[in-house]
Design brief:
3 helices, seven-stranded antiparallel β-sheet, single chain, alpha+beta, 24% helix
């Protein structure tokens, strides 16, 4: 029996990345197509939650980004976190007509991520100044009822 998900009045509306209208976002999507193709990420799996100010990627770790015996390469994980943090920074910067680039990247890899894992990356912009913005991204994996933190930066 197919049950429809009940409508919740205050449920946040996730906006597919491709539907954001800012010219800067559309230019980024066009110029970064290779980034998404390289990491086997579908733009359709990328969303923005304006209420929580979060950018979200949900994807599977492809075998092509394997490092050691079935585990994801740390550079792959770092690139995903940097890419997600960069997009949320770009979204926020576009609101003020500014640009955003990575100035500093610190990543903490907490758990080896198996190839084939379904992962979720959530990026937030948590503060900004006249000359900069601080963003943070985390990578998690659902394991049973637990959401396991794999990496952050």
């Amino acid at each position: 029996m197919n049950q429809e998900k009940p409508i919740v009045e205050n449920e946040p509306r996730l906006i597919p990345l491709r539907d954001l209208q800012q010219k800067e976002i559309q230019d980024y999507l066009e110029s970064s197509r290779a980034f998404y193709n390289q990491f086997n990420i579908s733009i359709d799996n990328c969303t923005y939650d304006p209420e929580k100010n979060e950018f979200i990627i949900e994807t599977e770790v492809p075998e092509t980004n394997q490092a050691y015996k079935g585990f994801a390469h740390g550079g792959y994980i770092s690139s995903l976190l940097d890419g997600a943090a960069g997009i949320i920074a770009l979204i926020k910067a576009a609101e003020t007509g500014k640009i955003a680039v990575t100035r500093k990247l610190n990543v903490e890899l907490l758990i080896a991520v198996p190839v084939g894992s379904l992962i979720k990356i959530v990026a937030k912009a948590d503060s900004s100044t006249q000359r900069g913005m601080h963003t943070m991204a985390s990578m998690t994996q659902q394991v049973g009822d637990e959401e396991r933190l794999l990496a952050w930066g």
